[in-house]
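[step 3/7] fold_predict: job queued, chain A
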Amino acid sequence: MKKNRFLALAVLAISLAFIGACVTTGSKSPGASQGQPGTLSETVRNTKCPSKMAMDISAKYPINTGNAQVDAFFKGKADNYLSSMKNDDANSDEGNCSLGSNLYANSDYKSFKPNPETIGVLTTIETFTGGAHPNTELQSNNFDLRTGKEITIEDLFVKTRTGISGIYDLAYAELCKKTATHDAARAVLGGECGKDKRAPSQVFGLTGPLDNLGHMVLTEQGADLNFLSYDIWSYAQGNFTLPISKDTLRGLGARDFWGPTAPAF
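[step 4/7] structure written:
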């Protein structure tokens, strides 16, 4: 009897250990905190058109970022976008009635976590209200999740002028290589690719053709500079993302956003 009881207890202990291991290592079901977006959507009909032409509007935005102020910022952006597009479509003139019914306005995003206390978000807005192709807009936001403070390119660099000039010159050189065969791109870049031996930041200052420095977004690998197609070439060529490695950024004097914690600034 004692032997049987001992065996039963041993089997129970092994079973509990197995269950504990399963609980510890098992995967969680996906949820909003693991990256699922908040979503707003609505179909608006233009009552001025005989067919009440419809436009589908949607906006996705990050939620559960870890900071309520940042969550409210992105929810507010999505609300404002939906409201603005609804108002624009409802009040558009009757001349738009011939455009058809396949109109849309979509706002989507990509998010990055260079460290647990920082988030970078690139929002892409695409709107089609008739014509040869949709219109696209890019928006970038980087936040310190400890404070809710937005991080700008000036916050990224300890030596602001040196760092921003350096990343400007690097971006300009890379775009010159990428766009060497595009006349439109050369016009946007000032036509100086390879012609002037001075640094582009000296030629143009920091308010030249790359004054927004490509909608910078902090990423796990460094930072992405995101350029709209119309900023550098034709629509058909598409948007362009130029990644800058964290080692390059550190070499330019950037604060280290790629460690275990975000820097104080």
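[step 5/7] annotate
The first strand starts at residue 38 and ends at 45.
Strands lie at 38-45, 54-61, 103-115, 118-128, 135-144, 217-218, 222-227, 240-245.
exit 0
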